[in-house]
C-alpha cells in the first residue's frame, strides 16, 4: 500500500540519468508506464529568475566537470546553507544533531511534504551559529547541512524525485559530487607516506590519495637538524609537520610548560611576582593559551588548511563541537590539557623540547644561519650560554619577543614596520550585553549553561579627517576604530613582560561564566603616528607601544595597578570622585583621566566611535561600563620579509620567520596554518618532501589587515 498519495510521489516519473547511476533498490519500484524519451518535468530557472553570479558559477562548474548537472546530482553531497530554526524549536546551542525543527527546514528546501519521513542519518550538521540580529524576524539558530544522497535514497526512496528537482542556488544550495573529506594533519602526512610506499593506482596510472607518488622522501642519510624557536601555534604545527616527515627537530621555548606556567601566572595574580620569561605572553602555547582561545579566522573557515588545523586540535583533545560551531572557542581550561597532549605526541616522535631556554643570538656564517646561541631563561647575564648548530632555524616567536627583533637588526636583517592598533579595554556586566543583544531572550543564557550562547559583539567605525568627523572634505580614511578580542564571560588580565610597562588583554574559560564581558576598543596606527612622536626606524612601532605602556604604568601608580575611567566620564573628559563600578582585573584599578594617555586624535577617534557603537548597541554607553588602559599588542609591529615559496628569510639563508611575531598571522588558527605551510616548505627545502602542500590543502592565504 502506498504511504502517500501518488500526486505527492509520482512514481511514474522516469529519472533523466543513465541506468548505471540508479541505486539498485530503485529498480524494484513499480513503474506503471514504460520508459519514455527524455522529458523535462520541472522548469529550470533562467533569465531574470537566475542571479548573474549564480549563472556564472554554474556555467563554470559545468565546464569544469564537463558533464550535465542532471547526470551526477545523485552522487556526492548536497550542501544546504542558511537553514533557520527558531529558538523555541531547537534543543539549544550544545545540541549538534538533527532536530525535528531542522528536519522541517530541510524539507522546506527539498519541497518534501512530510518532514518526519526524512531519515536523520542521511544528514550531517556542518555549521551551527546563533543569529539574534534585530533585522531577523526572531532569534534563530542557523545551520549548514550536508546531505549524503546515496544514504538518503537508500533510507527513503521517495526522495528520488525531490533530489532530481533540486537546483544549485548560490549561497543556499551547493552540489559537491567529488567532495574530499580532509583529515587531521597527522592523517594527511600518513597518507603522504603511504603513497610513497606504494598505493593502488587509477586506470590512468595516477596515484590514489594525497600528493604525488614521490612526494615523500624517506631520509636515507643524516636527518636534517631543525630548530624551532617558540612553542606557540605556528611553532607547534611547524614542529609537528617536520617531525612527522622525518626531521630531527628541537623545539626551543623561553617560557615554561603549561603546568609550571600556570603556577607562575598564579604567583603574578596573588603575589604580584612577574616572571619575565614565564607569564601571560611567554610559555608553552604562546599568548593564546591564557586568552579566550578563539578559533575564528579570516583566512577561510572551510579551507583545507583550516579544517586540518581544527581536526588536529580535536585529535589532541579539543571538543568536536569546534568543527561545527559558527564561532568556535576553547578557553584556557581546555587549552592546557590539549597542549599537554600535543607535547607528548611531539616527544613520542623524537622532538627535543627545551623549556626555559632563551635564544640570545643567531650563529651566522657567510650570510647563512647555522645555529643559535641559547642560555637559561633565568640567567639574565647570559653567563652560561651554549652554541647549538642546526641546518635550519624556524623563527616562530610571538609579537612580544621584542629582544628578538633587536637581535635580528644586529645582523642587518630587513624588518618592515607594520600597521597595528592601540586603545583601551572596555568592560560591561555580561548581563547588560545579554540584554542589549538578546532582549527578552537574555534569561536563556544562564552563564554559559543555557539554551543560547553568552552574548558577544563585534563593532567597527571608520573615522575620516583630522577632526574625527567622517564628513570631512579630506576624503581619505584617517583611521578605523574597532572591537578586538571580545571576551564574553571573561576577565581582564595583565600581559606585561616588564615591570615598568603595563599592558592588558582579555581571557575566558570554556563556559564563559564570569559576570563580565570585555573587549578592546582600538584605533589603527601607522608610521605617521610613529613619526609624530619622533619614533623612527624599523622598530618605531615597538617604541610607540612601549611609550604608552610606560605612561599607563605611571598613571596606575605602579605595582601593576591599571588606570581606569568610566565610559560616561571618558566621553565628557572628566574624572568623577564617586566610586568606580567593579572590575574583573584582579591586581587593582585606579581612577585616572585616560585623555592624558594617548595623542588627541586617538582619544577623539575613541570618543566618536563609542558614541557610534551606542547607536548600534543601545546601552553600550553606561555608567557600569569601565575603560581600562592600555591595550597595545593587537598584532606584530613589524614584518620579516621571506620568500613566498620557500618561506626562507630574504636577508639570511637558513632562517624561516613564521607566525604572528613575523607579521604573517593574527590569532591561533592563522598562526597554526602559517606554521603548517612553513613546516612543509622547510621539509621540501631539505629534501623530505617533493610535492607542494597546496596540492593537498590549497593555496596559503594571508589574514590581511585586521579591521575587527
TrEMBL record:
Q: Tell me which PANTHER family the record gives.
A: FAD/NAD(P)-BINDING OXIDOREDUCTASE (PTHR42842), FAD_NAD(P)-BINDING OXIDOREDUCTASE FAMILY PROTEIN (PTHR42842:SF3)
InterPro entries per record: DHPH_N, FAD-binding_protein, FAD-depend_C
- One Pfam short name: Pyr_redox
Q: What organism is listed for this UniProt entry?
A: Carya illinoinensis
Q: Where is the FAD-dependent protein C-terminal domain?
A: 419-634
This protein is called what?
FAD-binding domain-containing protein
Superkingdom as given in the UniProt entry:
Eukaryota
Q: Which residues form the Pyridine nucleotide-disulphide oxidoreductase N-terminal domain?
A: 225-283
Amino acid at each position: 500500500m502506498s504511504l502517500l498519495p501518488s500526486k505527492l510521489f509520482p512514481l511514474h516519473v522516469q529519472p533523466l540519468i543513465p541506468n548505471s547511476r540508479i541505486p539498485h533498490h530503485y529498480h524494484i519500484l513499480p513503474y506503471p508506464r514504460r520508459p519514455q524519451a527524455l522529458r523535462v518535468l520541472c522548469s529550470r530557472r533562467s533569465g531574470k529568475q537566475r542571479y548573474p553570479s549564480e549563472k556564472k558559477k554554474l556555467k563554470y562548474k559545468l565546464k569544469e566537470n564537463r558533464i550535465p548537472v542532471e547526470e551526477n546530482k545523485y552522487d556526492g553531497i548536497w550542501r544546504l546553507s542558511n537553514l533557520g530554526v527558531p529558538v523555541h524549536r531547537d534543543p539549544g546551542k550544545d545540541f549538534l544533531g538533527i532536530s525535528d525543527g531542522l528536519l522541517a527546514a530541510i524539507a522546506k528546501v527539498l519541497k518534501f511534504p512530510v518532514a518526519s519521513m526524512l531519515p536523520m542519518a542521511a544528514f550531517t550538521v556542518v555549521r551551527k551559529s546563533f543569529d539574534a540580529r534585530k533585522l531577523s524576524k526572531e532569534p534563530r539558530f542557523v545551520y549548514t547541512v550536508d546531505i549524503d544522497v546515496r544514504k538518503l535514497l537508500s533510507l527513503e526512496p521517495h526522495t528520488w524525485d525531490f533530489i532530481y528537482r533540486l537546483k544549485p542556488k548560490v549561497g543556499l544550495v551547493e552540489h559537491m559530487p567529488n567532495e574530499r573529506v580532509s583529515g587531521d594533519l597527522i592523517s594527511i602526512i600518513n597518507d603522504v607516506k603511504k603513497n610513497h610506499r606504494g598505493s593502488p593506482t587509477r586506470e590512468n596510472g595516477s596515484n590514489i590519495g594525497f600528493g604525488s607518488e614521490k612526494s615523500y622522501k624517506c631520509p636515507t642519510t643524516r636527518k636534517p637538524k631543525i630548530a624551532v624557536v617558540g612553542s606557540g601555534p605556528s611553532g607547534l604545527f611547524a614542529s609537528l609537520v617536520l617531525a612527522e616527515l622525518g626531521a630531527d627537530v628541537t623545539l626551543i621555548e623561553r617560557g615554561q610548560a603549561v603546568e609550571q606556567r600556570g603556577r607562575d601566572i598564579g604567583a603574578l595574580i596573588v603575589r604580584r611576582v612577574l616572571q619575565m620569561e614565564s607569564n601571560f605572553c611567554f610559555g608553552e602555547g604562546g599568548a593564546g593559551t591564557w586568552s579566550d582561545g578563539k578559533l575564528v579566522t579570516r583566512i577561510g573557515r572551510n579551507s583545507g588548511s583550516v579544517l586540518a588545523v581544527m581536526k588536529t586540535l580535536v585529535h589532541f583533545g579539543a571538543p568536536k563541537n569546534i568543527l561545527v560551531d559558527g564561532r568556535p572557542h576553547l578557553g584556557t581550561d581546555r587549552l592546557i590539557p590539549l597542549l599537554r597532549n600535543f607535547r607528548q605526541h611531539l616527544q613520542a616522535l623524537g622532538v627535543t623540547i627545551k623549556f626555559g631556554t632563551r635564544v640570545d643570538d643567531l650563529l651566522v656564517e657567510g650570510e647563512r644561519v647555522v645555529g643559535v646561541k641559547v642560555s637559561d631563561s633565568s640567567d639574565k647575564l647570559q653567563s652560561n650560554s651554549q652554541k647549538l648548530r642546526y641546518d635550519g632555524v624556524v623563527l616562530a616567536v610571538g609579537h612580544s619577543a621584542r629582544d628578538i627583533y633587536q637581535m635580528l637588526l644586529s645582523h642587518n636583517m630587513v624588518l618592515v614596520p607594520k600597521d597595528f592598533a592601540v586603545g583601551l579595554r572596555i568592560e560591561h556586566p555580561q548581563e547588560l550585553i545579554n540584554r542589549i543583544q538578546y532582549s527578552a531572550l537574555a534569561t536563556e543564557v544562564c552563564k554559559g549553561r543555557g539554551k543560547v550562547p553568552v552574548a558577544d559583539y563585534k563593532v567597527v567605525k571608520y573615522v575620516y579627517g583630522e577632526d574625527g568627523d567622517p564628513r570631512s572634505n579630506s576624503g581619505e580614511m584617517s583611521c578605523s576604530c574597532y572591537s578586538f578580542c571580545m571576551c564574553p564571560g571573561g576577565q581582564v588580565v595583565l600581559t606585561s613582560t616588564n615591570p615598568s610597562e603595563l599592558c592588558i588583554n582579555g581571557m575566558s574559560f570554556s563556559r564563559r561564566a564570569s559576570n563580565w564581558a570585555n573587549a578592546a576598543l582600538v584605533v589603527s596606527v601607522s608610521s605617521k603616528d610613529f613619526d609624530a612622536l619622533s619614533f623612527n626606524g624599523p622598530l618605531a612601532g615597538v617604541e610607540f607601544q612601549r611609550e604608552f605602556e610606560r605612561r599607563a604604568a605611571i598613571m596606575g601608580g605602579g605595582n601593576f595597578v591599571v588606570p581606569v575611567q568610566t565610559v560616561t566620564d571618558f566621553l565628557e573628559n572628566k574624572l568623577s570622585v564617586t566610586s568606580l563600578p567593579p572590575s574583573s582585573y584582579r591586581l587593582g584599578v585606579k581612577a585616572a583621566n585616560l585623555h592624558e594617555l594617548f595623542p588627541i586624535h586617538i582619544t577623539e577617534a575613541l570618543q566618536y566611535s563609542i558614541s557610534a557603537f551606542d547607536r548600534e548597541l543601545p546601552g553600550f554607553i553606561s555608567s557600569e561600563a569601565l575603560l581600562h588602559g592600555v591595550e597595545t599588542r593587537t598584532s606584530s609591529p613589524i614584518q620579516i620579509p621571506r620568500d613566498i615559496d620557500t618561506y626562507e628569510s630574504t636577508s639570511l639563508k637558513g632562517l624561516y620567520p613564521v607566525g604572528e611575531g613575523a607579521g604573517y598571522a593574527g590569532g591561533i588558527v592563522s598562526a597554526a596554518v602559517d606554521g603548517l605551510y612553513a613546516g612543509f616548505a622547510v621539509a621540501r627545502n631539505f629534501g623530505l618532501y617533493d610535492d607542494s602542500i597546496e596540492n593537498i590543502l590549497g593555496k596559503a592565504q594571508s589574514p590581511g589587515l585586521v579591521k575587527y
